[in-house]
Write a sequence for this structure.
């Protein structure tokens, strides 16, 4: 086969990538107008459209390749030459690593995720140490000339969100007060005169807010500097908070939240800056946070392979109560769980494997409001046999034999999901103090309420289906029972009409498939009366039918609830 043929294939894939990247940027660029007009339903639609774009373009390119080159593209060895030609063609690309991920998607789509080999695709980057730059300064520097007030005033006066500030002077005063109280004590006295604020030039948009993101630095120290900007829907905007604690910034960029809309010619540069603010976050997670979730998946996989090379522990069954639908395992030294759909589900589960996959697809495209863990889906994931504990092997062979294939010293799992590991809420509560129990149950109720306001009914709200993050946030992670809240029929349990009905061992009234009885939610606390007592104090409204019907009416009327990715006490109006 001639190099011309390989070059032609590479050019087709590059053209597809360029089209994807341009359309991605066009959708992202519309975020500013959607914020200005407070068109929150359009925000949600654009988010879904951008997520779906990648698969759409991949399918189109694969169809073009099959039509243009026929059966030849179905031979793995053909892709050895195509890969080489593609690598040569993109070596001066500013976004060559994301382009590599796109090539991988084309290859995997054609081969149904078989024949994964670095000779045919980019399991490893063609230039792992390369650092292409756009030539543009992605951030702007503000130096301290006379006072903190004048510096922060300059930042606000430079900001252009397409709307006037509700009260600019008030916002500046609030920011100054917060900087003096929370940030300046962090810096040494001899550093304070050298303070510089570096702000990323493009604005970050997500849900109903815009974010100015940057850092405040001196010769010896650095701290994040994030300003959430809200639209009051009356034609003006205001600064809602100053977020400067690294943990709080990490929560804003959490794996439990929707992806930001932020314009960037070279996303890798943006991720590099964000990584300086949150060095504990994997770069793959940061690519996810700005919408490049397929490349984030590539970065995760490469990081995972590197971790395996530098560790020796074995994969084990994940702690917690075993699920009826999923088998879950983890590597103790790596903060991720691997979830496999069982071949048969334990009663009373009646859904199919495809039903479960559809639930996970629903979550991947939905606003997760900081309460659902992001997942990555993999096919034919290869592990070393000797890294699996015997207990785990026995478990997988018992519950998911169709999902496992052995190839020499390798174990290949045909389909799995990866998800950030958290402490199951039921386990967390066992060793929690009274104060921790109260905080966790407040979070648990808030998670249910925020998911429901976003039109997600968790279904099975058992404590074991929620996890606690390192920041103490409670997050839902078991999706096989979720459904749109608007599909639920919330009912009050009918009053018994006779003594026989009152003492019947089974419900005497009819129950439809979508019927939900909020009075029964207390059953989720069986075995933990302490947790139930706290929950009843904080969230008893969840037992009321009218609470749920009000949520449904709000959703159906197009109301998008406010969900802040930071504690309410951080808001200026709460201080």
């Amino acid at each position: 086969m001639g190099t011309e043929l390989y070059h032609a294939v590479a050019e087709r894939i590059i053209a597809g990538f360029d089209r994807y990247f341009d359309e991605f940027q066009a959708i992202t660029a519309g975020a500013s107008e959607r914020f200005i007009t407070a068109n929150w339903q359009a925000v949600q639609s654009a988010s879904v459209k951008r997520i779906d774009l990648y698969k759409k373009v991949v399918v189109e390119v694969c169809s073009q390749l099959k039509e243009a080159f026929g059966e030849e593209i179905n031979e793995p060895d053909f892709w050895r030459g195509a890969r080489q030609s593609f690598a040569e063609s993109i070596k001066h690309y500013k976004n060559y690593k994301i382009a590599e991920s796109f090539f991988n998607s084309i290859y995997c789509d054609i081969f149904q995720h078989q024949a994964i080999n670095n000779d045919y695709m980019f399991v490893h980057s063609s230039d792992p140490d390369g650092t292409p730059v756009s030539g543009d300064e992605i951030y702007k520097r503000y130096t301290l000339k006379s006072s903190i007030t004048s510096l922060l005033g300059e930042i606000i006066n430079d900001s252009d969100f397409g709307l006037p500030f509700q009260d600019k002077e008030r916002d500046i005063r609030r920011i100054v007060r917060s900087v003096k109280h929370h940030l300046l004590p962090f810096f040494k006295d001899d550093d304070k005169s050298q303070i510089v604020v570096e702000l990323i030039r493009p604005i970050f948009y997500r849900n109903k807010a815009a974010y100015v993101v940057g850092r405040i630095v001196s010769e010896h120290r650095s701290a994040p500097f994030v300003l959430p900007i809200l639209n009051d829907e009356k034609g003006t905007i205001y600064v809602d908070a100053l977020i400067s604690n690294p943990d709080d910034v990490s929560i804003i960029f959490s794996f439990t939240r929707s992806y930001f809309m932020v314009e960037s010619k070279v996303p890798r540069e943006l991720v590099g800056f964000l990584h300086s603010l949150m060095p504990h976050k994997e770069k793959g997670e940061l690519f996810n946070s700005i919408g490049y979730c397929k490349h984030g998946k590539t970065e995760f996989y490469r990081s995972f392979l590197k971790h395996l090379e530098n560790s020796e522990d074995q994969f084990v069954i994940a702690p917690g109560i075993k699920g009826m639908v999923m088998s879950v395992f983890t590597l103790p030294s790596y903060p991720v769980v691997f979830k496999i759909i069982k071949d048969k589900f334990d009663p009373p589960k009646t859904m199919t494997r495809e039903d479960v996959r559809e639930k996970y697809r629903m979550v991947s495209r939905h606003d997760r409001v900081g309460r659902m863990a992001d997942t990555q889906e993999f096919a034919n994931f290869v592990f070393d046999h000797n890294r699996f504990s015997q207990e785990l092997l026995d478990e997988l062979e018992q519950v998911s034999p169709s999902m496992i294939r052995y190839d020499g010293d390798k174990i290949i799992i045909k389909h799995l999901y990866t998800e950030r590991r958290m402490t199951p809420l039921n386990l967390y509560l066992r060793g929690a103090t009274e104060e921790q129990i109260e905080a966790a149950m407040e979070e648990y109720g808030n998670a249910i309420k925020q998911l429901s306001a976003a039109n997600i009914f968790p279904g099975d709200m058992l404590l074991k289906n929620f996890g606690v993050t390192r920041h103490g946030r409670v997050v839902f992670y078991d999706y096989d029972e979720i459904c749109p809240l608007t599909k639920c029929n919330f009912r009050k349990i009918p009053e018994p009409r006779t003594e026989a009905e009152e003492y019947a061992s089974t419900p005497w009234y009819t129950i439809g498939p979508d019927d939900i009885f909020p009075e029964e939610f207390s059953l989720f606390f069986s075995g933990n009366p302490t947790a139930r007592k706290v929950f009843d104090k904080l969230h008893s409204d969840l037992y009321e039918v009218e609470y749920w019907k009000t949520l449904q009416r709000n959703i159906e009327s197009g109301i998008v609830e406010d969900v802040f990715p930071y504690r309410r006490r951080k808001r200026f109006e709460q201080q």
About this structure: The longest helix spans residues 40-69. The mean pLDDT is 93. The chain has 18 helices and 17 strands. The CA atoms of residues 41 and 559 lie 9 Å apart.
